[in-house]
C-alpha cells in the first residue's frame, strides 16, 4: 500500500512536509523507511522552507532570576499552550544537557543557553529540545552579564551538509574619552568558522538592556532597553543603531508594561498602560516607520474576559511606583504571554480572548520580577557535533 500511495521520494516529501510537526512525529513511527526519510536533512530543509505551513507556538520557557544576587536559578519551567490539553508545567525539558543552564535566546526552534554561574569554565549551548541534540561553544571574552542573541534562519542556513547559525554577544562599555558616556560592542560567533570575532561596530547608548533577550527578525537582532529605544544589530553586515519605540514611556501616569517580539516576519512592540493594550509593527527600520496593529482599551479587554479581569483600570493606575500590575512578558505570532497580578495568561489578539496558563506560585518564589521568558516553536532541525 505504501508503494501505491508514494511511488517516489518526491511525492512522499511533498505530502509529509505539509503535516503539522506533532502529526509528523507520530508518522515517523509508521515504518523504518518513513522514519529515515523524515530524519534526513533534505526533508527537514524542505519542510522548513514551506512558509505557508509555519509551525505554531507550542509553549513558553520560563526561568526565574535573582534580583540582588549574581548566582543563577537553575530550574526552568516549560508552559505548553495547547488548549486541548490541561496546562501542565514541565521542568525536565533540558535534562538531556550535561549541566544546568540559563536561557538566553531562541530562534526558529533552536535555543541558546549558557552554563549557570558561578562556573569555572562557562560554555554556551545551542540545542534543539525536540530531538535532544546540542553543540557546545566556548564562552566569549565578555562579561558574564552580557546578553547573547541567536540568529538562525532555517530557510537559508540549513544545507544538505550542515546547519549554520550565528551567536551575537552584546556588552556595554564605558567610553574612555567622555565622562558618563557608554556604548555597546559585539562579539560574533559563526558556526561556519567555529570562532568568536570582535566586531568593529559599536553603538553609543546610555541605557541598559531590559528583559535581556535578543529577538531575531529579518536578519537582525533586537534588544529592548530601559529607555525609549531598541538596540538593533544587523547580523550579516554587522551594523548597529538605535530604533526609537513608537511611544514615549514617560508620558503615562502609571508604570507601563512593555516587551518586544516577532509576528509575520516583523518586529513588534507591545505596550500596556492605563490607556489599554497596544501593539505596533516595525514596517521599516531604516525609516523608523511603526504601524499600529492592535489597540484595545482596558474596559474592552475586561468586558471580553470578565472571568479573569476585574477593575483593571483602577488596579493599573494604583501601581505608580511598583512593578506593573499587568506586564507583557513575551509576544509571538499574535499571542501575548503576560502576567496579571500573580497569574500567567495567554492573550490571543485574533480572538481577543485570554486563557489562564498557571500561577506564579507554580513557577517559583522569584518569578515576579524580570523573569526570562522565551516563546518556543518545535523544529526538526539537526545540529552538527563539533
Task: Describe the protein's architecture and organization.
The protein is 14% helix and 39% strand. It contains 8 helices and 23 strands. The protein is globular and about 60 Å long.
Task: Report the radius of gyration as a whole number of Å.
Answer: 21 Å
* Most strands sheet: 8 strands, mixed
Estimate percent helicity: 10-25%
Distance between the termini: 41 Å
> Runs with pLDDT <50, length 5+?
1-7
How do the helices and strands line up, and which of them pair or pack?
Elements: H1 2-5, H2 9-16, H3 21-27, H4 32-39, H5 41-48, E1 59-63, E2 77-80, E3 101-107, E4 110-115, E5 123-128, E6 133-138, E7 147-151, H6 154-157, E8 166-174, E9 182-190, E10 195-204, E11 215-217, E12 220-224, E13 229-234, E14 239-244, E15 257-263, E16 266-273, E17 276-284, E18 289-296, H7 298-304, H8 312-318, E19 326-332, E20 335-340, E21 343-348, E22 353-359, E23 372-376
Parallel strand pairs: 15-19
Antiparallel strand pairs: 1-2, 1-23, 3-4, 4-5, 5-6, 7-8, 8-9, 9-10, 11-12, 12-13, 13-14, 15-16, 16-17, 17-18, 19-20, 20-21, 21-22
In short:
The protein is mainly beta. It has helices at residues 2-5, 9-16, 21-27, 32-39, 41-48, 154-157, 298-304, 312-318; strands at residues 59-63, 77-80, 101-107, 110-115, 123-128, 133-138, 147-151, 166-174, 182-190, 195-204, 215-217, 220-224, 229-234, 239-244, 257-263, 266-273, 276-284, 289-296, 326-332, 335-340, 343-348, 353-359, 372-376.
